[in-house]
Amino acid sequence: MKQYKIIPLLVFTIVFIFGCETKTKQITNASDYDQYINVKGNKSLDFANEEIIFWQTKYDMAPNQSSYLGIIASKYATLFEYTGNIDYLYKTEELLTQSNEENNYSKVATLCSLGRNFIAQHRFKEALILANKALVIGEGKNETQKLLFDVEMELGDFSAAEKNLKALKDMKDYDYLIRLAKWNDHIGDLETAIGFMEKARDIAEKEDNKVLKIWSYSNLGDFYGHAGRVQDSYDNYLKTLKLDPNYSYALKGIAWIVFSYERNTKEAKRIVEAIEVTHNTPDFFLLKSQIAQFEGNDKEAAKNEKAYFLMLKENNYGAMYNKYNTLIYADEKENAAKALEIAKIEVDHRPTPDSYDLLAWSYLNVGQHKKALEIAKAHVIGKSFEPKVQYHLAMIYKANNEMEKVEPIKKELLSSIYELGPNFEKKVNQL
Q1: Other C-beta atoms within 10 Å of 307: how many?
Q2: Does residue 38 sit within a domain?
Q3: Which are the contacts of 162, defined by CB distance < 8 A and separation ≥ 6?
Q4: Residue 115 belongs to some domain of the structure
Q5: What is the pTM of this model?
Q6: In a domain, 352, yes or no
Q7: How many domains does the chain have?
Q8: pLDDT in tens, 116-173
Q9: What is the rounded distance in angstroms from the CA atom of residue 45 to the CA atom of residue 279?
Q10: Range of the structural domain that residue 427 is part of
Q11: Of the candidates 251, 241, 195, the residue with the CA atom closest to the CA atom of residue 214
């Protein structure tokens, strides 16, 4: 789940046009979302740019006013959110670092803002240091504990995260409810997670808070999709776009429905290519590669994968795409050793069950199936409920001849093909 008050990342997740009939019903209708494709202009971007000029001018005239730097930083964060341009994320960091230095790292709000920027960059350990500094200062303890929960979840320190969540308990507080939803999703109780997210949405609607409504609807779009409630997912993405026609995350969610549920690759590509014009990030090349792979167009799939790596090479994304890189390399025999190297780094940066899954999967793909099972037993089994993680576990069990454990996972995975993507259907059936 994306985190509230954190620049949304790319957090990242039909009529089959090649003559195969599907049993799924048509959910999407191009007339519902065509108005959000190729939207002319972006009022939020224009306003952010105007604000940057205004506050930068004020700061230049009064350079002792470090609070202006935080305002300018928040506007660059908006630019990053809408464009995906990594330079804006680093500009945000630069301004927040300058502000913290001028205040001798004594202001909780500025420390927390920089901490959230580090989370967006996947620099979780550095974010934790800042959160702990803020906690020592003492003021605004609630905000600090929210940040601590977010960081601890990313670092896999779930007992500490739960402790901070309990300290925040307030069933009327939006921020608490969305974190409670995230916690329940983490422990595998999706139904309860959805319930709390809906309560948060109700608060956003009652307060008529546009920002919170957008965030609620888009996240419910994700949650409903995970639960197989594709119609509800689609409806919430449309509600998001109605409030903010430039919110490409929701449009990408619709593209996934068109591709994975309806299996209309032509229309899915049309949506993705429209988003790329204004929000250009590497993950779109991976989505186009998946689509091409499903079409049986291996040349186009390879071309998009190459474009993905070229974009990573041309821009400094740090550790933000380590997970994707590991999964890509692990599937290619000649690069499996490279996947293992990255997975080890990821476990060091972010020792979560999902990171250990990448490590186990990488060991399996370099031929060390016993080592893979050892890691999975120690760090993954019963600790992550993501379908892709479950698929990896099934493959690890299979490699270790523990076939009795594969079948129940296979049954679960067959009901998760929408979330996994249509390319997994054949893989799951072959388990």
Answers
A1: 16
A2: no
A3: 183
A4: no
A5: 0.92
A6: yes
A7: 1
A8: 999 999 999 999 999 999 999 988 899 999 999 999 999 999 999 999 999 999 999 9
A9: 12
A10: 321-431
A11: 241
